[in-house]
Amino acid sequence: MVGDGGMGRWPDLPEPRDLDLGGRRLSYRDFGSGRPVLALHGLFSEGRAFARLAAALAPRWRVIAPDQRGHGWSDPAPPYTREGFLGDIVALLDHLGIARLPIVGHSLGGANAYQLAARRPDRVSALVVADVGAVIEADLSFARAWPRRAATREQFLDGLGFLGPYLVDGVCEHPDGWGLSCRVEEALDTQQLLNGDHWADWLAVCCPTLLIAGSDSFVLSADHAAEMVAKLPRASLTVLPGGHFVHDDDEAGFAAAVRSFLDATAA
User: Fold this and answer.
1) How far is it, in rounded angstroms, from Cα 258 to Cα 133?
2) Is the alpha carbon torsion for 168, 243, 56, 66 positive or negative?
3) Could you say which DSSP state residue 113 is in?
4) Structural domains in the chain (count)
5) Closest CA to 265 of 211, 210, 214, 199
6) Residue 61: CATH number of its domain
7) Which residues span the domain enclosing 147?
8) Residues near 156 by Cβ (< 8 Å), separated by ≥ 6?
9) Model-level pTM?
10) For residue range 148-164, what is the model confidence (pLDDT) as tens digits?
11) pLDDT-based confidence at 84, cuts 50/70/90?
12) How many CB atoms lie within 10 A of CB 221?
């Protein structure tokens, strides 16, 4: 990856920092000071997607946003198992000397967040899960038809169709043109290994939890979201106008909901 490009979309974007995991790079961005909160992006995205949320939460909250394995500036790391993603998160927290903190996660990141909270409750104090269910079944094979590279960022995003505006955070400049910062085939492998019934993990979460759903999401249905919250003590549901990328569709509403929840749990 050569560069981020289009820096105007990402206010006050800190330079990526690297953590060496046995010769494999895990990259992350650390936004400012305050109480730490971890932010986990979705598939085809990267940590800088939370730059605007970080600005909205400052100065009380310090957002730490890794590029999850195979995304952004982090190295590819197949196989993309649940254990692999969760191990990376714990390694990052250990590196930063953070014992326990709230986690915000969208889609893939949301599933990783609630699975970590279930399996390592000693590391997660509160949870915000954005538009992902306890049962995940997605077929992303359509991504194989996307262009691999384009001469400009705009041309590449046009080639992604209606998803272009939502995936801009995961697009960068390569030596041979503009494209995704992750490899499509590895992203599809990630999704395949994520698909399945994760009710056991969801129901094992014991910390305060906020589930945020998009009113028109094609990933998380209203019925499934309501069932998740009804079955989990200490969970609440916020529905915001928009689709699966609810943090983009209602950026202000999403930031307000996250800030209110984090402030309340911290108090």
Assistant:
1) 18
2) negative
3) H
4) 1
5) 210
6) 3.40.50.1820
7) 7-266
8) 147, 149, 150, 171, 177, 178, 179
9) 0.96
10) 999 999 999 999 999 99
11) very high
12) 12
